[in-house]
Every structure is written in structure tokens, then in C-alpha cells.
Design brief:
By secondary structure, the chain is of the alpha+beta class. Helices cover 33% and strands 30% of the residues.
């Protein structure tokens, strides 16, 4: 992946969600903004790249215990060794343990919060690549600490798996006991308030989330372990690949129908288009022969009727048939990506239109037969990129 989407999730669904789309190859910000709450996360589903989900460090316990034993049996005992320090029962917490020399670093997050965060992302069609406490996404070097202020909070990383997030106004009181009487070098990204015996080196003027995008990518730590480990896609996950295959076939099907209609409108190009349609038809239905371009409609309708008994595919194929006719009627709008969710009975369409007016016209045409929701819209080279979600009425 050449891009990274960074999202800083809040503790509650109504909290603001800052985000940033970062180009790893060019090291530049592609886009950024702030969502009003978790119900707006779907607006980011159309952005390409891997998703780095940052969670509030203030919601995470961070500590360490002396490594007095070895193996899994000792690691299983670590959470119970910290019971007096934890604000919740051990059974209610998700633990991430990382041995480091003579110590074991510990991160703990409430299971309910983990489930809430992952549920928000799943509902928005987003799949996280990594999930990290925000302060551990700061860049880190062994000889110094790193610090950054973001939305009124101080993020401070003091070790490979150590740090904190605290109210920036209380930073001197919170950090003071950690520094004690020693002189502590700190690499600061932007203006930060720390005790006087912290010697600050100010680095760069990047947006805070751009700093976290680079630091989070370099940090291998990931809260998505144990019960939250993401399943890898492989040969045994055929069902996961099925929507991709359906979407690819759907795009080819829409192309075929559009070309069939164009033959009647552009008779001067009929010969060349007919050969192209026959070739496309052969790729979509191997071993079958298209008699003529004029018979394309009837043969495709026959295919739709044949496939109509295949459960949820019936709804999908009906939608595709209607969609192809609507694209031909509206004109000038191109389908770029299709995604069908059988469980929800919805078809998500990413389109490229010459302007916002053409996009709205397509929405109105489809609205007579379907429930239509509009996703994110953005200016791109050559027009406007936008997302529509279709569901059957009734």
C-alpha cells in the first residue's frame, strides 16, 4: 500500500474523530478533516490505503512487571499480578503483553471499548490494519522521549511500549514525577508544556496526525491480537473473495449492456463495437457464443432469469440490470467500483461524474425504484467521485 488512512477514535460514539489521508511514498498529506461522530465514518470508506486506527491513550492501562518466570504460564499470571493497579476486573480487560529484557510491558483495554471501536469501523465498511494507543504512534528513539499536543491532550512516549496521554493543562503535574530530578531530553512535535528539567528539541511542523501516521507505521505493536486478531485472507477464505469476483463480473456486465445500447445509437461504429461485445461476452461466459450484437439484450435477460434463483444473487442481478439502463439514460457517468453486501441487501457504487449536477441526476433516477443513500463526494481529476448505496424498497 502506498497510502495510509489514520483515524483517531474517541471513547464514545458522539466524540469528534480527526482523520488524515497520508501518502507513504510521497510523504505528503492527501486530505484531512474531522468527523462529528462514529456514524460519519462511512464517509471515509472510499479512501484507498491501509487503515491505522488510533485509540485514546487515556483509556489504556500501560505498565510493566518484572519478569520472574518464563513461558506462557508466567504470562498468563501477569494480569493478576496487576489487579491492585487496574481500574477494572481482569476478566473485563484485553491484555497485550510484550517481554522486554527483564520486564514484561503491559497494555490493557476494556473489552467493551475494543468491541465498540471495531463495530463502528465494521459498520462503516472499514477494516483496520493496526490499532494502537495514540501515544505509542509517536516516533521514538531510545535516547529520548517524544511528545505532541493534540486536541488539548499531551501525548508522551517514554519507551518502546511505554507512555501516557493526559490533559495538556496538567502535563507538568503528570510528567513531573516521571522525570524526578534528572534532566530528560524530549523531541517535541509542535509546542508542548513540560517540566523545566525536560530539554526540548523541536522537530518539524507536520500536522499532528501526519506525525502519528509515520510513527504508527514504524511501530509493530498492534492491539488486534488474541480474540481481536484479524483473519488473513487466503485460499481457505473463498467466501471473502466472492464479493470481489461478483463485483468484477458486475462491472463487465454493465459494460456489455452499455455497449449493446451504444450500437443502436452509433451505427457508424457498429462493426467495431460488435466485435468488442462478442469478445467481452466470451470472457464473461466462456464457451458460449453471442449470435449478434442485436441479440445481446435477450441473451443477457436469459442469463438474469437463469441466475435469478440463486438466493441473494437475484436481488443483485436485478439491481445491476436496472443500474445499467439508468447509466445509459443519464449518460456521462462511469461506474468505477461496485460492492454488494448480501446480508444487508445493499449495493455500494463508486462513480465518476463530470460534475455534482450529473451525480444528483443519477441519484434521482435511481430513487424512483430504490432507497438511495449518498456517501462521500470529492473533486478528482476529470470530475466528481461519489458513492451511492442502493437498497430495495419495501
Amino acid at each position: 500500500m502506498s497510502n495510509t488512512l489514520v483515524i483517531r477514535l474517541p471513547q464514545g460514539a458522539e466524540g469528534a474523530i480527526p482523520w488524515l489521508h497520508w501518502s507513504d511514498s510521497d510523504q505528503v498529506v492527501l486530505a484531512s478533516g474531522t468527523l462529528k461522530g462514529a456514524d460519519e465514518l462511512a464517509q471515509l470508506a472510499g479512501l484507498d490505503g491501509r487503515l491505522l486506527a488510533l485509540v485514546p491513550g487515556s483509556c489504556c492501562y500501560n505498565g510493566a512487571v518484572k519478569q520472574s518466570g518464563k513461558g506462557r504460564q508466567f504470562l498468563r499470571a501477569v494480569p493478576f499480578m496487576l489487579e491492585e493497579e487496574l481500574a477494572d476486573d481482569v476478566d473485563n480487560l484485553h491484555f497485550l503483553l510484550q517481554p522486554q529484557g527483564e520486564q514484561v510491558a503491559v497494555l490493557a483495554v476494556n473489552h467493551r471499548l475494543m468491541q465498540d471501536w471495531l463495530s463502528w469501523l465494521a459498520d462503516a465498511g472499514l477494516e483496520p490494519w493496526k490499532m494502537q494507543p495514540d501515544f505509542l504512534a509517536l516516533p521514538w528513539r531510545q535516547e529520548s522521549w517524544s511528545a505532541l499536543e493534540l486536541d488539548g491532550e499531551l501525548l508522551l512516549r517514554t519507551g518502546e511500549v511505554a507512555g501516557l496521554a493526559a490533559d495538556a493543562a496538567l502535563a507538568e503535574w503528570v510528567v513531573g514525577p516521571l522525570v524526578a530530578d534528572k534532566v530528560q531530553p524530549v523531541e517535541a512535535y509542535g509546542e508542548v508544556r513540560l517540566p523545566d528539567n525536560c530539554t526540548l528539541t523541536h522537530l518539524g511542523t507536520d500536522l499532528p496526525l501526519a506525525v502519528l501516521a509515520k510513527g504508527g507505521a514504524a511501530n509493530t505493536l498492534n492491539l488486534l491480537q488474541g480474540p481481536y486478531k484479524q483473519k488473513k485472507k487466503g485460499s481457505g477464505a473463498l467466501r471473502r473473495w466472492l464479493p470481489v469476483a461478483v463485483a468484477a463480473s458486475a462491472l463487465l456486465l454493465v459494460t456489455l449492456v452499455s455497449k449493446g445500447l451504444a450500437i443502436h445509437q452509433l451505427s457508424a461504429r457498429a462493426g467495431g463495437l460488435e466485435q468488442q461485445i462478442k469478445a467481452d461476452y466470451g470472457r464473461l461466459f466462456p464457451g458460449e457464443h453471442l449470435v449478434s450484437a442485436g441479440s445481446l439484450k435477450s441473451q443477457l435477460r436469459g442469463k438474469l432469469k437463469t441466475l435469478g434463483s440463486a438466493g441473494s444473487n437475484a436481488s443483485l442481478l436485478t439491481m445491476l440490470n436496472d443500474l445499467s439502463l439508468t447509466f445509459a439514460k443519464v449518460g456521462s457517468i462511469k461506474p468505477d467500483n461496485l460492492r454488494f453486501d448480501a446480508d444487508r441487501g445493499e449495493l455500494r457504487i463508486l462513480t465518476l461524474a463530470p460534475d455534482y449536477a450529473a451525480f444528483e441526476k443519477l441519484k434521482q433516477e435511481l430513487g424512483s425504484r430504490y432507497q438511495v443513500e449518498t456517501g462521500g463526494q470529492s473533486q478528482v481529476d476529470g470530475g466528481v467521485s461519489g458513492t451511492l448505496v442502493l437498497r430495495s424498497k419495501g
